[in-house]
Specification:
Elements lengths: L2 E2 L3 E6 H7 L7 H4 L5 E3 L3 E6 L2 H13 L11 E5 L4 E3 L5 E6 L2 E6 L22 H7 E7 L2 E6 L5 E5 L5 H14 L11 H20 L5 H12 L3 H14 L4 H13 L3 H14 L4 H13 L3 H14 L4 H14 L9 H5 L15 H24 L7
Antiparallel strand pairs: 1-8, 2-4, 2-5, 3-4, 5-6, 7-8, 9-10, 10-11
Helix pairs in contact: 5-6, 5-7, 6-7, 7-8, 7-9, 8-9, 9-10, 10-11, 11-12, 11-13, 12-13
Length: 389
């Protein structure tokens, strides 16, 4: 018997289902994705309000061994509003009956229409182009997307179970971002580590489905770094940089990871790349200057921080960076070769003091200087990371 199809429908030959399902075509109900799914003796169909849900169901069919590229195709996609069938095939007959769109297998002479229970043909389908042109997004709640007509103010609703890749990324990235780790800080433990591991698993699944996307790899890199695995973080961030070389955040995070790995030359190169994208960003220039200082390029660090202070003379963090560079140049402190040295106290402290100091006093002074340097370094690395990509 003919089947009613609505919105975006996936129509499958039952003989193809017989080939791939253990229970044959009768087992279609076991894989049917929603209440708008039903079969006759020749075809099975599932209708979707959202294209992304249809795409997810199509992927599940392909994983079971069905194909749209075979001859004849095992299944096709029907766009009800446009009356289009993709790919075109000669086994599907499409017709209208009392305002409903129906499909059947060519040669089927049944006159009984199989359709879901509803009041009539009031369900209206809008194309993605019409949604972009005529509607504005209001909210998504309980798997329902709400849109408002820009001209009439009318609200329309679309059921959608499947999150888009962007929605998955944004949801997971918000949590990953709260755990991101500045250079020199301890890795996550306990519940935070467990959340990071869950986020990494979900993001890796997203990357497996969409290997062309850079930002899930960025999020995985941040998560691995927060979890204490800088090598894994480095691999993910380097891949993200190849996919989207002009995203500043990727190079900032790479710089942080390189510093954790004590690869200061690469850290400086990553910071240099970030500056080349936003050359007047004084925060990025401060990052670059400190990375150059750690890499032993004191003269480059001096020029970089001087340029940053010309752009913004009142930048307190960059003023502190400039003081560090001057201390190294004047040999008041040795060139730092690690984060620990950068965060440690200058060696010249007691040399300029006329009076002897107790060990407790020196220890407190050292702790204060270490706290200040940690705070300075975290500010300089982190101040450009507060905005998500």
């Amino acid at each position: 018997m003919p089947l009613e199809v609505q919105c975006c429908a996936v129509v499958i030959r039952n003989d193809a289902l017989e080939r791939v399902l253990e229970g044959g075509a009768e087992a279609f109900g076991d894989i049917a994705p929603n209440a708008m799914s039903y079969s006759d003796n020749m075809l099975s169909q599932a209708s979707f309000m959202a294209q992304v849900d249809a795409d997810e169901f199509i992927r599940s069919l392909e994983l079971r061994g069905l194909s749209r590229d075979s001859t004849p195709p095992d299944f096709v996609v029907v766009q009800a509003q446009k009356r289009e069938v993709q790919p075109p095939c000669d086994w599907l007959l499409m017709f209208e009956y009392e305002g409903r769109l129906a499909v059947t297998m060519t040669g089927n002479d049944s006159t009984t229409l199989y359709a879901p229970k509803h009041a009539g043909s009031e369900l209206k389908h809008y194309t993605e182009e019409e949604i972009r042109r005529d509607f504005e997004f209001v909210e998504r709640k309980n798997n329902i997307d709400t849109y408002r007509n820009k001209n009439t103010g009318e609200l329309v609703y679309s059921a959608r179970r499947t999150e888009t890749p962007e929605e998955i990324f944004q949801r997971v990235f918000e949590r990953v971002w709260t755990h991101r780790r500045a250079p020199g800080r301890p890795a996550a433990t306990g519940r935070a580590l467990q959340e990071l591991e869950e986020d990494i698993a979900e993001l890796q699944s997203l990357v497996a489905k969409h290997p062309e996307l850079s930002r899930p790899r960025l999020a995985i890199g941040i998560a691995w770094n927060a979890a204490g695995n800088s090598q894994n973080a480095k691999r993910q961030l380097e891949q993200a940089a190849q996919l989207e070389p002009d995203l500043v955040t990727i190079h900032q995070e790479l710089g942080s990871v390189y510093l954790e790995l004590r690869d200061h030359v690469s850290a400086a190169a990553a910071c240099q790349r970030a500056v080349s994208i936003e050359p007047d960003n004084t925060g990025l220039l401060g990052n670059l200057a400190l990375s150059q200082l750690l890499a032993g390029s004191t003269r480059k660090a001096e020029k970089t921080i001087a340029h940053a202070l010309r752009l913004d003379p009142d930048d307190r963090v960059n003023q502190n960076v400039a003081n560090m560079v001057r201390q190294v140049q004047s040999e008041q402190r040795p060139t730092p070769t690690s984060l620990e040295e950068l965060m440690g106290s200058p060696t010249m402290g007691a040399r300029n003091s006329g009076a002897p100091t107790s060990s407790a006093t020196r220890r407190k002074a050292t702790q204060r200087r270490q706290w200040w340097l940690v705070r300075t370094f975290q500010k300089f690395i982190g101040r450009n990371r507060g905005r998500q990509p």
